[in-house]
Amino acid sequence: MLGIISFVGFTALVAIISYFATRKTDESSSDGYFLGGRSLTAGVIAGSLLLTNLSTEQIVGLNGSAYKDGLSVMAWETLAAIAIVVTAIFLLPRYLKGGITTVPQFLADRFDTTTKTITSGLFLTGYVVVLLPVILYSGSVAISGMFDIPTLLGVSDKTALVLCIWGIGIIGSIYAVFGGLKAVVVSDSINAVGLLIGGMLIPVFGLMAIGDGSVLNGLDVLMTANPERFDSTGNPGQEVPFATIFTGMMLVQLFYWGTNQQIIQRALGAKNLAEGQKGLLLASFLKILGPLILVLPGMIAYHYFEGGLASSDMAYPELVRAVLPKPLVGFFAAVLFGAILSSFNSVLNSSVTLFGIDIYKQHINPEAPEKLVVKYGKIFGICLALAAMFIAPLIANASSLFYYLQEINGIYSIPIFSIIIVGYLTKNVPAIAAKIGIISGSVLYIISQFILKPYVFGADDYPHFLHVNAILFVLNVLIMLAIGKLYPRKEPFVLEYTNQVSITPYKYVNQVGLAICVIVIAIYVYFAK
């Protein structure tokens, strides 16, 4: 009962603070609703980025990978720091200079409207079909299991799952659809503090459990017992081969942190470039600390349970149940609920933005006033949320499905990233090259991963999908550059300054960014065996 009270209390506190922080925001305009009135500051941006990125799949899944493979899986976190630095220095100034609300908006200016529409459609398909149902399902499994909802309510496991799915879906929809971006990022920032505190409690109590009450003794025991598991370069056959960090891993990270609407929308809402860059750099530093929450508990669980768990995905929840004091379970559940909610409402808000700006305003009603665009964006968001809530219970195995979907995300991630990079780095590549780039990139990836890999060469002998991403990225860029050489634009593209916000950069952005990159490299060197 104490756990439920602390859970409800913390969740209600977040909702109340979010309401008072956003009640004066003008949400009748596109900027007000979709970008929080372009008023977001560094701390809010960093907190929202952190919570948007974290979800139950990552908290449970990455710790499960660490349970299985050790420290090498930290690449998913540490390399993200470098990708965020690149976004802060290179991409964000161009985004804010162009005054865009969505990433596809730039593609309309640089190439044409058709390119923008295709890209928005790919983003929406990925969000609606892939992310929303999986977030709802896996989050509901975690909450239902943590509070033992079937026993508490006297219902079946399936009924409890459906109740949790609809509970998370409805609350997330209220934040994302009716509150706009500012409500999302304010609630994210509060939950970010809770996640950092709650997330750090797990490795602390875990190390104390294996170190006879001492954290430092526990860390010494952990490193002495299995020193090979602290190798940052890993071993052949692991989930993240070391070579992939020099190929597709960085491309995936740059796409996610630099061009993914779900993520970059927080920085697009910055009050000025300096605040946006400071927010990204703060988030980058926090990602360096990410392995303490997302990798270390899995390694502790391997030692604590002596590698005897039936499934690696059970490492994190089993460790939480084993070492966390009972009075703190409710608070931790509330923090986890915040992470689930953040992922759901962030994807939903981005979907609403893409539909309202790039679909409704562009193709359905070009003359629509901004208030009407926001109205129909909200209606679309409600429909998406309902669809996700109906689809989510149909997912049979969230963890394996999520891994599979991570791989098929390459169908659209690398093609989109390649045309954005070519768009910014060149002036003469035409719109037809971007269209061919998206289509060829997607088709070649499908052929590679779903025809050649299983039926021609065999999965065991085939290159890692991150290497495939790198190969196809280079090929895609070369195709577009060749088309640009043969059929250049009639007039070179020039990025115009829209005066939406000040684009004076943070004066220490290069120095701080370099320091973060040095720290990441130093971590790899220190733990390399």
Tell me what you see in this structure.
This protein has 529 residues and is mostly helical. It has a single domain, classed as Up-down Bundle (Sodium/glucose cotransporter), CATH 1.20.1730. 76% of the residues lie in helices and 0% in strands. The chain contains 23 helices and no strands. The chain has helices spanning 2-22, 30-34, 42-53, 56-69, 75-98, 103-110, 113-147, 149-153, 157-210, 215-225, 248-258, 261-268, 273-289, 291-294, 296-304, 315-323, 329-364, 370-391, 398-408, 410-425, 431-457, 465-486, 509-527. The longest helix is centred in the middle third of the chain and has 54 residues, at 157-210. The protein is globular and about 70 Å long. It starts with a helix and ends with a helix.
List the helices and strands and how they pair.
Blueprint (H helix, E strand, L loop, with lengths): L1 H21 L7 H5 L7 H12 L2 H14 L5 H24 L4 H8 L2 H35 L1 H5 L3 H54 L4 H11 L22 H11 L2 H8 L4 H17 L1 H4 L1 H9 L10 H9 L5 H36 L5 H22 L6 H11 L1 H16 L5 H27 L7 H22 L22 H19 L2
Helix pairs in contact: 1-9, 1-17, 3-9, 3-12, 3-13, 3-17, 4-15, 5-11, 5-13, 5-23, 6-7, 7-9, 7-17, 7-18, 7-19, 7-21, 9-10, 9-15, 9-17, 9-18, 11-20, 11-22, 12-17, 13-23, 15-16, 17-18, 20-21, 20-22, 21-22
Features of the shown structure:
529 residues; mainly alpha; single chain; Sodium/glucose cotransporter; 23 helices
Short description:
With 529 residues, the chain is mainly α.
Q: Radius of gyration, rounded? A: 23 Å
Corresponding CATH superfamily: Sodium/glucose cotransporter
Tell me the β content: under 5%
Apparent shape: globular
Q: What is the CATH topology descriptor? A: Sodium/glucose cotransporter
CATH architecture label name: Up-down Bundle
Tell me the series of helices and strands, N- to C-terminal.
HHHHHHHHHHHHHHHHHHHHHHH
- Counting H and I runs of at least 4 residues, what is the number of helices? 23
Low-confidence runs: 26-36
Helix fraction, binned, reads over 70%
Q: Termini distance?
A: 48 Å
Q: Could you report the average pLDDT, rounded to the nearest whole number?
A: 82
Number of DSSP E strands: 0
Described by strand count, sense and barrel closure, the largest sheet is: none
Indicate the CATH class.
Mainly Alpha
Q: Strand pairing plus helix content: what structural class?
A: mainly alpha
- In total, the number of domains comes to 1
